[in-house]
Specification:
heterodimer, A: alpha/beta, 3-stranded parallel β-sheet, elongated, B: globular
Chain lengths: 97, 374
């Protein structure tokens, strides 16, 4: 927005975050859904995610579709993302340390 | 629809509510596309930048249109030239110029800033990790070639310290781009546990005239006589003293001992490291016939520590097992992961090394030529 007034104009050094590029998936009951686990290779991230998967299977009746991994600071490889899309209804990710 | 055009206080014309996409009168090139705001005077501009979180905590130069255009002319670059992407959004020369003005750069510094930003946005540098991580890495800029001299960059006494405009403002411009254009603001995307003073600015030249060795950018594939910026994500500066050694191995032995300390970035992740050698150390090392490659070979072989030591020091999990005493863990990824730079002044046999960001896969140094082809 350009504000009126003033004798000196200065320019915005920031780049706004793009909006509207993502959105929430439809929410609904998760019983019977396939849950994927995505760990980021940090220590113990697989441990906590497997525990969460076990709890969800026990208490919410989901099916754990598997555990996938990615480098700690980088996005998951496209083939991993595609595989998870094919095999999972929802994905849980998290970090370790 | 035709919009009303009114004269602005600075004499330029602007359609109310527009974002500056109209051609400029007077042949000044395409209009700036960034949002702008009006303020009373320069001091009010500084306060406005503070209020919006656009500074690094120090006052900034107000980024006026005249100053931004002068900056762009300094590199003969159009405002809409795209240098790279951040979060799928283009980072334009205009955004970089705004930040360079705020940092206090002169227009002739701007080609260096542009090259640095290209390096920072290169996927190999890994800004998403280095700019955001709790590790608090600083972005080190090493400038090589004739542009370092023409820009007035310091490579000698206090090269890593205060006192020189080019060093201070070019490094600061890169930091402000990371913070403002790339969104790595402290407390938001920048989650540094401690932060580091090097995040205000860290830029210096290699002392090519005073070096017995091949310049950094030439080692990394660029031609002699060309200019370049190398960007390196590192932890703090580890200075070391060696006033007694009179051999290459003696000095580098001290360096290697410092480099195999527990808890450093290289202990954690075996990435790159940056060795900064001062003139008196360089003279001794070169007199023994060692070049940069020999230095790299020595350090990659000696900056190691046993797995047993790392376990006892709680740098690796688990109990010490058979074979751990003999298993040496290298603290750098490879010989090529040791960057050697000639820098610093006379009068003290001090040098320094800077641990790299912990993961070689997440970040490595990137060298970018300065100039029209950058």
């Amino acid at each position: 927005m350009v504000k009126p007034g003033g004798t000196l104009r200065i320019y915005d050094p920031t780049i706004p975050f793009p909006r509207g590029t993502g959105g929430l998936a439809p929410r609904g009951p998760i019983q019977g859904k396939r849950v994927g686990l995505l760990e980021n290779s940090k220590r113990n991230s697989d441990v906590i995610l497997r525990a969460i998967g076990d709890l969800l299977a026990e208490k919410a009746g989901v099916a754990v579709a598997g555990l996938w991994g990615k480098p700690d600071t980088l996005p998951g490889a496209p083939e991993i993302v595609e595989e998870m899309i094919a095999k999972c209804d929802l994905v849980i990710t998290g970090v370790g340390d | 629809m035709q919009r009303a055009v009114k004269r602005r206080p600075d004499g330029a014309r602007k359609a109310p509510g527009a974002r500056g996409t109209r051609a400029r009168p007077g042949g000044r090139g395409p209009a700036l596309r960034s949002r702008s705001l009006g303020v009373r005077d320069a001091l009010a501009a500084v306060e406005a930048c503070y209020r919006r979180g656009w500074t690094d905590g120090l006052p900034v130069i107000p980024p006026t249109e005249a100053a931004i255009r002068a900056m762009l002319r300094g590199a003969v670059v159009a405002p809409d030239q795209v240098l790279g992407q951040i979060r799928s959004a283009p980072v334009t020369a205009e955004k970089v110029a705004i930040n360079a003005v705020m940092a206090g750069c002169r227009p002739d510094h701007f080609p260096i800033v542009l090259a640095a930003v290209r390096g920072i946005l290169d996927s190999r540098f890994g800004l998403a990790a280095t700019g955001a991580s709790t590790q608090s890495a600083m972005t080190v800029l090493i400038v090589n070639g004739p542009v370092a001299v023409s820009a007035g960059l310091n490579a000698r006494d206090n090269a890593l310290g205060p006192g020189n405009r080019a060093n201070a403002t070019i490094g600061r411009a890169a930091r402000l781009v990371i913070q403002n254009a790339c969104g790595m603001r402290p407390g938001l995307l920048d989650r540094g546990t401690l932060g580091t003073p090097g995040r205000y600015t860290c830029c210096f030249a290699e002392d090519e005239a005073g070096s017995p060795w091949t310049a950094l950018h030439q080692e990394r594939g660029l031609a002699s006589g060309s200019s370049a910026v190398t960007v390196f994500a590192g932890w703090g500066v580890h200075q070391f003293s060696d006033h007694l050694s009179r051999t290459a191995e003696g000095i580098l032995g001290t360096a290697a001992d410092s480099m195999r300390a527990l808890g450093t970035g290289n202990c954690v992740g075996q990435g790159e490291c940056l060795l900064l050698l001062s003139p008196e150390h360089r003279e001794t090392i070169a007199r023994d016939g060692w070049d940069k490659q020999a230095i790299r070979e020595y350090l990659s072989a000696h900056a190691r520590r046993s797995l047993a030591d790392l376990k006892r020091g709680n740098q690796r999990p688990g109990q010490v097992e058979a074979g751990d005493e003999e298993r040496l863990i290298p603290f750098v990824h490879s010989q090529e992961a040791v960057l050697v730079v000639a820098v610093g002044g006379m009068g003290g046999r001090f040098s320094a090394w800077i641990p790299g960001f912990t993961s070689y896969s997440a970040s490595r140094a990137v060298t970018v030529p300065v100039g029209p082809k950058a």
